[in-house]
UniProtKB/TrEMBL annotation:
Domain ABC transmembrane type-1: from-to ranges: 63-278
Mode of membrane association: Multi-pass membrane protein
Family affiliation: Belongs to the binding-protein-dependent transport system permease family.
Name of the featured protein: ABC transporter permease subunit
Organismal lineage: Bacteria, Bacillati, Bacillota, Clostridia, Peptostreptococcales
GO cellular component terms attached to this protein's record: plasma membrane
Organism of derivation: Alkaliphilus pronyensis
Predominant subcellular localization, coarse grouping: membrane
Xref: InterPro entries: MetI-like (IPR000515), MetI-like_sf (IPR035906), Sugar_ABC_transporter (IPR052730)
GO BP annotations listed: transmembrane transport
Record key words, sorted: Membrane, Transmembrane, Transmembrane helix, Transport
């Protein structure tokens, strides 16, 4: 009995520290979002700040921008990651090729460096524009369509895809490698081609894991600050950027507006955590069948 509970007892100091910071931050932000900020004389709880923010056109635009960039980048990263992991599976059959290690490089690159790389490549004076100009595809670099700071958030999406794709590849490749020997070879021996093996056998087996991976990278990109701040447009802004502007305002009375936006981001985070738990339970139930 003692051996079973000993690891949990040893984790108590760390968990108290982590959960303490988390709970204090959430409670403090929640109180400020309701207008309780004694430091500047606000001591009355009110829903007015929520009404102002949720009815604000800038908040609606920011919510739409954050959701669209996060959803599109996560979906593209999942599709490309699954296809790339399947490609790695057959690359490994040929005694292992360079692809086995190349995909791991973006995982160790910080998001700020990823934003810098995207900026260097796809700005109007970047490497891609210069290459297209020298090859004669465009008459002048000013005709290169801006992919950075654009209202559609293409630069933000590309940066998130570049970071999310290797993560999806990492979590799906090991699963594909483990189930491929059991089921794929049997199906191939029965006459199934590569597409049928992937679509009818491998994909259903990795689908729960892929879904959980999608939820993880969507939740992260939805609340991330660095890449939208460095590559996003001046309008519409992402939710974390809009919150930062209110928080950094010289007028401290704008602080509750920032906390309302933070609470909305936190709520979306809790929802995605709930979806992740449900997905994990589905995976466990699926594996037990």
């Amino acid at each position: 009995m003692r051996k079973k509970i000993k690891p949990y007892i040893m984790l108590i100091p760390v968990m108290v520290f982590i959960l303490g910071i988390f709970i204090v931050g959430i409670v403090s932000g929640l109180l400020q979002s309701f207008g309780y900020f004694p430091a500047i004389g606000l001591k009355t709880l009110t829903l007015q700040y929520y009404k102002d923010v949720l009815s604000s056109p800038s908040f609606i635009r920011a919510l739409r921008f954050s959701f669209s960039t996060s959803f599109i980048s996560s979906l593209v990263a999942v599709v490309l990651g699954v296809l790339f992991s399947y490609l790695l599976l057959y690359d490994r059959r040929r005694k292992g090729g360079p692809l086995v290690n190349i995909y791991k490089v973006p995982i160790i690159v910080p998001h700020t460096i990823a934003a810098l790389l995207i900026f260097i490549l796809f700005t109007q004076s970047g490497w891609v524009a210069r290459l297209m100009y020298h090859l004669g595809f465009i008459e002048d670099m000013k005709y290169f369509k801006p992919l950075i700071f654009d209202r559609q958030g293409l630069g933000v999406i590309m940066a998130y895809v570049w970071k999310g794709l290797p993560f999806i590849t990492l979590v799906t490749f090991d699963i594909l490698r483990s189930v491929e020997n059991k089921y794929a070879k049997t199906a191939a021996n029965l006459g199934a081609n590569h597409f049928q093996v992937f679509w009818y056998i491998l994909l259903p087996l990795i689908l729960p894991t892929v879904a959980s991976g999608f939820i993880i990278i969507f939740a992260f990109s939805f609340g991330a600050f660095e890449i939208p701040y460095l590559l996003g447009p001046s309008t519409p802004k992402a939710l974390p950027i809009l919150s930062y502007i209110h928080y950094n305002s010289v007028n401290l009375a704008d602080r509750p507006y920032a906390m309302v936006i933070n609470m909305c981001i936190a709520l979306c985070g809790f929802i995605t955590v709930g979806l992740y738990v449900l997905t994990f339970q589905f995976i466990k139930k699926y594996n037990n069948q």
